[in-house]
Batch of 2 targets.
Target 1
Amino acid sequence: MPGEGTPPQGPPAQPVAALELLVHGVGGTTPEKMLDDPRTVRITGDDTAAVYRRADDVDDAGDTADPDGAGARPHARADRPVPEAYVWSNLTSGNGTRALWLLLLPFMVVNLAHWMRPAARAGTRAVRLYGLLVRLAALSLTVLLVAAACEVALDLTAWQCAGTHACVERHTWLAFLDGGWWGVPGRRLALAALVPTALVALLWYLSHRTWRAYESQEPLPRTDGADTVTTLSRPGFWYGRRLVSRLRAAHTAAGLLTVAATVGTAAARHDRERGGAALLDVLGHVLEVVLLAGAVCVVWVVCGRGRTEERLDHKIDRHIVRRLPLGSAAVLALSLVYAAWSRPGWTSSGRLPGDVTFGGIAVVQGAVAVALAVVARKLYTWDPEHRSALRGLGGPAVVMLACALGGVMSGGVAQRVADWLDGTGGVLPGPPVLLTWQASVIPAVLFVVLALCALLGRRALSRAKAQESAVEKEYGVERGDPGRTRAIARARAMAALTDRAPLLVGVTSGATLLLGTAAVVGALVSGKTPVGAAEGTYAFVEGAARVGQALGSWLIGFAFLMFVTWGRRAYKDPHARRTIGILWDVGTFWPRAAHPFAPPCYAERAVPDLTWRMTTWTRATGGRLVISGHSQGSVLAAAAAWQLEPADRGRVALLTYGSPIERLYGRWFPAHFGPDALKALHEDVDRWRNLYRLTDPIGGPVRLPDVDCVPFADPLEYGRTTLHPLPAPLLGHSDYQADPRFARERADLLARLGLGARVPGQADPACVPNEAQAP
């Protein structure tokens, strides 16, 4: 391993430039806090993400090569590295309106599933099939979202409420649709279609704009070949421009075709049933054929190409990117004109045919999730890794959760809008039966989740009780304060609940699959049961479903408000970001490989930033570099190190603390952060030190020899001492620098790199590499 030799005994003949690049974590911070100096200067970057240095250190690290070729400039210091702070918090924070990204949570979740495939080196076809199935699941979610918008705007509002005089009297803003030129159902549908069309246009605009702002940063050109151990080292990993543009075009077209189908099929059904004009009947059949052809084209584009990571792919499939959305928009315009054509005697009654649409989407999503589970299990058996979440089934479980989120949100919102429009009158048919049944399963799913959480909490308290004696023994107290002991033991037990997340995800996913299947069957049976035949057991089930539906519709409304509230707090309040930000930052760390409308990937800006800074500095100075990352910053640091060429990587050392790189990323994304990938990174970089606490719910060991230190004590002292006359707090995931051992570990790492003198006995003997422990 590079750098394993004995450090130089004396100062070098010429100073060697050294840099310590600090990368903060989820909570975000300021360069002044990171550098512990009120006077900082921006070295490079912009208002979104930048590198800062202390004002006194601006000319202290030899950033440019000596014109005579001697390496670093004469004033480069060898006694300590010059610290720099990379501040990227503006990539994931902003004003409160960005909380609306939380409404696209199903898109982010399904995009996560793409990166959760098992770490199988064999079976290229199976790997491609895995990605294809995830992209199809993502496409179904777009269709589901737009179909739900059509259900609210077209069916419930324009078709049912605007076609019922009693409902129009209750909602006077719909009065202009009651009679007159707009009284024709087709024209009302054409007007209401502008709402879901505007939603699709907004999604396209956000995806295009955020791509330019976040993900259009071109990675550093590579001259070496990509490593085979992890995909994160591939030159084109952080530049998925071609695939995102194709998927954006396909999903935009799918949304527009969904709106066109909702409007056009309603008019075509009337023409077939009532025997309208021959020309309209022919146009209806032509429109249906065109819609089917458009759907086939969309599916072909989604299935036709995956990610290109082996090289930087600047090519754009312009014939697809431009023609597919424009063609779909033309089909939508044709359907609007067709529906708005005058049809004497056409009145709106009942519901639009939404049961078939939502039922078909639910069946397709269930089939895709099951097929994905089969493929994932096959990949796992080729290269099993016992640390993988759910033994390779993490991706399928997350896909099921994404589909369940989409279905629950669609059913709950539709039912809530129906209740608002209808009030207590009961004059509207309401949403499709399937959406009503889906809303009814929300309380059942919530009960399962709460029951499991209660069980895990009870077990955590039992483990905390069992650890109390070990805590007192560790701190060397015989009869300690019971409250203090209990608090420390509970903090450790609650932090360990992170390792039980696969169980929670697996049980919740299985419950949603079973209950979702029951909802489809219930909707099918209730739709075929004659009026008055609902007796006995079926009457009880139907009554329970109605109670669940009413409760579920209110729960989804409450959840909507909570999403927005939490989102605003997460973007505005740093303390809230530390609580829920890690889940959001894990989701937006990964590129948009399955769903183009998912929230933007900040790492496609941050990783190239770090790679460019590290490479240009090491090549200009020939010096050593330590990249120090906390929490999510450690993941960015590792991802940037993988993007370096081997010669540059060998001059870089890693210092990580509170790092989820193995505990979360290694378990849930084994193909990219698995044991082999982490081991290869450890062998390639100069040194790697990892610090963690047992009370940290996020950070943990990386499980590599000579990398992990003995866990930091938390709190620093059990009781009051001379150095700590006041009770020491439990720090958990924050303030690692507050522990004196952090400074010792950092100094020890720098000494082993030949940067500064190492004081004998300075580091904990259990924390130094194995070869240094030999006599």
Target 2
Amino acid sequence: MAQNAAAPTESHRLPESELRRLDAWWRAANYLTVGQIYLLDNPLLREPLRIEHVKPRLLGHWGTSPGLSFIYAHLNRIIRMQDVDIIYVCGPGHGGPAMVANTYLEGTYSELNPDVSLDEDGMRKLFRQFSFPGGIPSHAAPDVPGSIHEGGELGYALSHAFGAAFDNPDLVVACVVGDGEAETGPLAAAWHSNKFLNPQHDGAVLPILHLNGYKIANPTILSRIPDEELRALFVGYGYEPLLVEGDEPEAMHQRMAAVLDDAMARIRGIQATARAEPPTGQARPRWPMIILRSPKGWTGPKQVDGLKTEGFWRSHQVPLSGLAGNAEHLKLLEDWLRSYRPQELFDASGAPVAEIRATAPAGVRRMSANPHANGGLLRKTLQMPDVGEQAIAFSQPGTVKAEATRAMGDFLRAVMQANAGARNFRIVGPDETASNRLQDVFKVTARAWMETILEEDTYLGRDGRVLEILSEHTCQGWLEGYLLTGRHGLFSCYEAFIHIVDSMFNQHAKWLDASREIPWRRPIASLNYLLTSHVWHQEHNGFSHQDPGFIDVALNKKADIVRVYLPPDANTLLCVTDHVLRTWDRINIIVAGKPPLWQWLPMEQAVVHCKAGLGVWDWASNCGDGEPDVVMACAGDAPTLETLAAVSILRQHLPELKIRVVNVVDLMTLQPRENHPHGLSDAEFDALFTESKPVLFAYHGYPWTIHRLSYRRTNHRNLHVRGYNEEGTTTTPFDMTVLNGLDRFHLVQSVIERVPGTGPAGVALKQLMQDKLSEHHAYIRAHGEDMPEIRDWRWDG
């Protein structure tokens, strides 16, 4: 099937001394892995193993771990011999104990955790802490030095790896893909990332498919398809597959060394050619990848209770269980541990012997100490242009229309231009940069594209800094990998379809949260989303494109991780964008529309408003400094427009009604200050929303979100929220708001229903609003567009 299946020639054979060192490292890593899963005490087996030396609850995964350590040992050899800058992305996240074991052998784990020292007592702590209360997780979590990828959820390793390689010309990212993980949709799409990697200025990704044959209780697809199909699959993806296959350790060490040497030579050749002659027209290079076919649970028990274990799914987690009631299992565990000959691997103090320590690279060349795997060490502040240069100029609210995201696109162009030399800012998205009105960035860059470029193509280039692929998973993974290795970026997506990455968002939020508790993890640039083509502007695409619920997913995360911004116009969007690109260790969600809409705040007012997060719009209110009869609040561009239109109607027909208009940009300000750092104190909230007056809140998303954020406030009982109620179809823009009761006519009716004393004038106005709703209903069905008074409405002050 793949190349290099035969044994290496004599000229490529490892010297006996190197073979011995590699095997010693591998045995030591395997011993430490088994010890973490099973042992509480007696870490060096200085006495016969007894049941009190074993953990009462056995947690962890053995099956993938020996293969991961085998790869780690061989990558260390490459680093030492060739002085290569390599980080290790571990896709099989269940192999956490193997990753910890290797970082411990390298010494990095003890440097960062001095209590887990390189001696017998430190080894005891290493074993005890794994999957133990008060200890460390079972996956390659942020606690593991050298990790940028937890892998608790499978599918994202390869996109993370490519994200790390973009704009890192000297970096090689070794990405181990589990064959179970390879069955996921996100991973399948991520193989296409090689079509975006430019060898002139990007690093390289070396995928290693860890083909050990089994998932939890089933064979894996790629392990059972014919060899010719497997090779054809990866050739079709654009790779050159190289095979390492077997189960006999010495032969496997020789094969792996030869294949890794071959792969590195191919990578260096591709990069040397591209950097001598930039790839303007030649074919995309065929990057190498390795298929490692080895037994699941390699070197573990061959059989347990007469049932096959090594090379079968039974080795996936804990091959030996129920040790307290099974003396034979306890004896099998001791024999298994002693099979690695720990007395040869660790000295009298319990430290790895000198031969093993000499096998590790030095300093920051250790994969567990590589600064790219702690990207905050490399993060440089973006050079930020003056956001005022993109401001929409006007003197009075509602006198100028502009496309908010187009203004944002011009600002992002300036950001891209200001950081062109640093090559540390990228925009990712699923084929929507231009659709979302960010196309001004194409004045200074193109979309990255390493395939054929036709004469009629637009904005495609080998050196493009915009990454577009119709896989939201891949976009998210690229950006996460880019951020985790110290750079900056923005993900632009249709609001309804950002849900595709809900789970990836969750994982990244958890990573950020866990990292904050680890002193040596340095802050990374924030993950910034622009959600546009949103629910209120998707009347043309219909119900399938109408979903504002990503905000609700985000609000489930810890308060200090997430920010949600709903700028009502272009200038506020510019202010928010400028702010989020300067932040770190956050997930910032911006929701903004792209159609031409009325502009409300000149830039100087927008700056003040966004800094506060919310505030009274005095120019739209008529209550002065006194108490209002009603507070009309809004968050989002469409709700703001409908609120102001409703206020205009009310002020015309009920001029005695005192109205206060409150606009919310930063959704988190609605929470109590003790729940979120941006939250208002109760006194501040009461001053804005009163303690007893009706509050009518027009909100971009699902109404209960506002109730959730404000339910503990004094005046919550008088809060009435209108938003998206899962009513949608293909219709007109204004009818979308009518279907969900967010339109100006329904808002006016709600005010009249909740404010006492409007009298006959209120009754008449409520009926007029009902007549307008009927008129609207008939008009759009007759004409296919909104009524002129809706299309031509403007704020009249």
